[in-house]
Design a protein that fits this description.
alpha/beta; globular; 6-stranded mixed beta sheet
């Protein structure tokens, strides 16, 4: 596997029926083969992936002038050593002399880049050193063997074993000298990089954190900066740009403080790559230019070549293909003539392939991708293999080879899914890495639709959503204890037959949305925009129908007042803004055509419902289950208005699910016998004594405001169920958690919070009363029940209702909304009711009371919620007052 770089994913999709529009937003399209002149597009391309150039910095006692890190052999020179010296040493039969000559020959080959030869010398010298207890030489040889393996591109078994043995030898000496601890810190950093190179991100983070802690302990600022930067690289690969930037910025500050320019150059390059991935080309270019200046000042040829190539990437995305080629050629020349570095050469070739593709030279592009794939395969680098496959698929599609494009994308998906399997049971990491991997799924859907295979495209749509949640639920559904399950266990995505069976079992119409982005040339720059919406309808009969909606008019428009630059994301946001303003046009009585046409709820209806209206059930009591994607998770489906002003909730009984497979698993959870002996008990919580939280960084914690309306709501609901609500200090965290585990129904009327309080990548929390210890409020149990804590609970509830503000919101990902709702589903709750915005007290109390009154007479939660909404809207006509609640999971 080659030294890894960070992945840039620019998603572009194919749609054969689209024609170019005569305005400034011109699509990139099919170009004449071998024609190097860019043309106006006639057809959208599927995705291509850009790969910035970046190498991992390995740590040793010394670094050669070509950037190779190594552990030196004191007292031995490698300048004049040769095989004849080894022959002389063998003649002497002195094991000490033989081992040292072997080590020296190995180091000589190592520094010349002949890693295979170096490894053979090192291995023989290591065996002699072990047999004769030459501990110092054994330690050095282990370190150099590990480095030679990883610098060669082999990150697996032997490399990690050697580096781990090296670390253990140093660690077990228990020497507290600064030199010994510095060596151990270097060992930890190398191990972290090796695990990262082997795509074992959990292990990589663990060792980089150890490296960071030890460097801070011995006050090694350079080591601290290096560890921070390495952590940033791992989090970028996991798709967590916020953490990645935070770590890199800390590293840059330290590098500049200690005036270590080589380290500063390394961090600047990493920051440039992250901002380039974010589409911030101005900031990216600035960091790459700073790195280029330092590299030239230090005569650091590798950094200079990488900086030039990454600036070429910026030019590529800015649409200046000639400049991009020129910069790549500069980087290539340095690598070919002066560095002889295949790692840089093949990566530049891969990126040049992108430019040739955009310029219509498909043969040259395929040639570049082929070489890039072969090189990545020789290094067992799964991520870069996937990139090469995806880019080759784009060329094949553009050349009219649909079958070849589909096959290549399937291969890319298989390669990348193997990376997720290597993350074990770490749910947060699986969510993050999928954010870097969703492009091939979108592309393959587009190719399959172009091949008139809508059912196969639906299967891929399912395969590309909520995978981490489905795997987590599947593990919890099995009778095998989770601690005994294989950490890499995954589940297959549902087949078409299984998808049809889910609709039949639920006697429901399933509606799955998939947003297909596209790459467009906008005023000379490559930009990603929403291109098409795919909508599959799976009817209870098993019939599957696909409808397609053009999303380009949302952002390709002349009137800024009705232009949504971010497509559906902006339209959904505008809708929510108008709801919060109680805009008269969104009222129930708005039924004039002039008002309807300007109503974003009607616009959403036209996009999401109208194309499939004829496929939805005529019976208002029949279930319709929506499977949204991305921003569509925040759509208040109940409020969508048709051309007559009629609301969707008046016509259908609706609920939500992150995926069809998750819906199926939640159904199995509901059917599974519950372990609780107290089945039938209910937990009602309202207006706890509020905890203190930090609302602004650096400010003291403040107590949340009380919610007297929530207290009234909880008491009224408790009366319906002939139980007593937990109110005030009685609703403390430990008591609520204990009763949650033994309750069939859980209702929590309190504050909902959106922050990631534990920093674990799972935002959201519920405010409860702080626990007390001997009359004093505990600082550890502060009354905040976080989403990350909920995930670890084993709940037996059939239904959990979070009657609080914004409990249905969170971080929008390819795995759905990561927050409280997902945490509860992951904790085995088959049905969850949450809110999309802050609600007034009085209508909420009415709606909830009606909801539970309806549930007492029927087991249909979706129908109960619909009837409660219809009742509430009679007294409170604005959707703001009644439409926030959504049912997720089993209806």
């Amino acid at each position: 596997m080659t030294l890894l770089t960070l992945i840039w994913q620019q998603i572009i999709t194919a749609k054969s029926s689209d024609k170019a529009t005569p305005n400034k937003h011109e699509k990139l399209g099919e170009l004449a083969k071998n024609d190097s002149t860019p043309h106006t597009a006639q057809q959208a391309q599927i995705l291509t992936l850009y790969q910035p150039l970046q190498h991992l910095q390995w740590e040793g006692e010394r670094v050669s002038n070509t950037g190779i890190a190594y552990f030196s052999l004191d007292g031995f020179s490698n300048e004049s050593i040769s095989e004849s010296d080894l022959d002389v040493a063998r003649t002497s039969q002195d094991p000490s002399k033989i081992a040292k000559v072997l080590a020296t020959l190995g180091l000589s080959s190592h520094l010349q880049g002949d890693y295979e030869k170096a490894i053979n010398y090192y291995k023989e010298g290591l065996e002699i050193s072990k047999q004769n207890a030459y501990l110092e030489l054994e330690t050095i040889l282990l370190g150099n063997l590990g480095l030679a393996h990883v610098q060669q591109g082999n990150y697996y078994a032997e490399a990690i074993d050697y580096l781990n043995d090296y670390w253990q030898l140093i660690h077990n000496r228990k020497q507290n000298t600064n030199t010994a601890q510095s060596q151990e810190a270097q060992a930890l950093g190398n191990l972290g990089n090796a695990y990262y190179g082997a795509d074992l991100y959990v292990k990589a983070i663990a060792f980089h954190q150890k490296h960071l802690a030890l460097s801070q302990k011995i006050k090694d600022k350079a080591g601290e900066a290096k560890a921070l930067s390495d952590l940033g690289i791992v989090y970028q690969a996991l798709g967590d740009a916020k953490k990645a930037i935070g770590y890199q910025q800390q590293a840059l500050t330290l590098a500049q403080q200690i005036k270590q320019q080589s380290l500063e150059s390394f961090v600047l390059g990493n920051l440039g790559i992250i901002y380039q991935n974010q589409g911030n080309y101005t900031q990216a270019s600035d960091y790459h230019q700073q790195r280029l200046a330092i590299a030239r000042q230090l005569k650091d040829l590798r950094s200079e070549a990488e900086a030039l190539a990454n600036l070429g990437g910026v030019a590529y995305f800015q649409g200046d293909f000639n400049k991009a080629i020129a910069l790549y050629e500069q980087g290539w020349k340095i690598s070919w003539e002066r560095l002889h570095d295949a790692d840089i050469l093949y990566r530049i070739a891969g990126n040049q392939g992108l430019v040739y593709f955009q310029m219509g030279n498909f043969d040259k592009a395929l040639e570049s991708y082929g070489k890039y794939f072969q090189y990545a395969s020789s290094r067992n680098n799964h991520r870069e293999q996937g990139i090469a496959k995806i880019n080759a698929a784009a060329v094949r599609l553009q050349s009219g080879n649909l079958a070849g494009a589909a096959k290549t994308l399937e291969e890319a998906i298989e390669i990348w899914e193997s990376l997720r399997a290597r993350l074990g049971s770490n749910d947060s990491f699986k969510i993050s890495i999928f954010e870097t991997q969703n492009a091939p799924y979108s592309n393959l859907q587009a190719v399959l639709v172009a091949q008139n295979q809508p059912e196969a495209a639906l299967k891929i749509s399912e395969r590309g959503r909520a995978r981490a949640l489905a795997e987590l639920l599947s593990r919890r559904l099995t009778t095998v204890p989770m601690q005994k399950q294989a950490p890499t266990a995954t589940i297959a995505s549902p087949t078409i037959a299984e998808i049809k069976k889910v609709a039949q079992n639920h006697r429901a119409t399933l509606v799955e949305y998939s947003i297909v982005p596209g790459n467009f040339l906008v005023e000379g720059k490559l930009e990603t925009h929403e291109s098409e919406l795919l909508i599959w309808v799976v009817q209870p009969t098993g019939n599957i129908t696909l409808r397609r909606v053009d999303l380009k008019p949302l952002w390709q428009c002349q009137n800024p007042q009705f232009c949504y630059q971010k497509g559906l994301t902006d339209l959904v946001s505008k809708t929510r803004e108008l709801l919060n303003m109680r805009n008269p046009s969104l009222g129930r009585s708005s039924n004039t055509s002039s008002v309807i046409d300007k109503n974003p709820l009607h616009q959403l209806h036209q996009l999401l419902i109208q194309p499939i209206n004829d496929l939805l059930p005529q019976d208002a009591n029949a279930h319709v289950i929506f499977i949204p994607q991305r921003s569509l998770f925040l759509v208040p489906f109940a409020t969508l208005q048709d051309a007559t002003g009629k609301l969707l909730i008046e016509q259908h009984t609706i609920s939500i699910s992150p995926s069809i497979q998750v819906l199926d698993i939640t159904h199995q959870l509901r059917e599974k016998p519950k372990a609780s002996k107290n089945s039938g008990s209910n937990l009602i919580v309202g207006n706890p004594t509020m905890p203190k939280i930090v609302t602004e960084l650096g400010e003291p914690p403040e107590e949340l405001a009380p919610l007297p309306g929530s207290e009234q709501e909880a008491n009224a609901i408790a009366q319906l169920f002939q139980t007593k609500a937990l109110i005030g200090a009685n609703a403390n965290k430990s008591k609520v958690i204990k009763q949650m585990s033994n309750s069939t129904l859980v209702h929590l009327a309190t504050h909902g919070l959106l922050s990631d309080f534990r920093g674990l990548g799972v935002p959201g929390a519920i405010a409860l009363a702080p626990d007390t210890v001997q009359g004093q409020t505990s600082t550890e149990e502060n009354g905040i029940l976080t989403a990350s804590e909920i995930i670890d609970l084993k709940l037996n509830a059939e239904l959990v209702v979070l009657s609080a503000c914004n409990t249905g919101r969170g971080k929008i990902t390819g795995d759905g909304v990561v927050g409280l709702s997902r945490a509860l589903v992951a904790a085995r709750v088959p049905s969850v009711v949450v809110s999309l915005w802050a609600l007034p007290d009085e209508p909420t109390a009415l709606l909830m009371t009606e909801f539970y009154r309806n549930i007492q007479h029927q087991n249909d939660k979706a129908a109960a919620l619909r009837q409660a909404m219809l009742t509430t809207m009679k007294q409170y006509p604005y959707p703001l007052d009644w439409a926030a609640f959504i049912l997720i999971g089993e209806p």
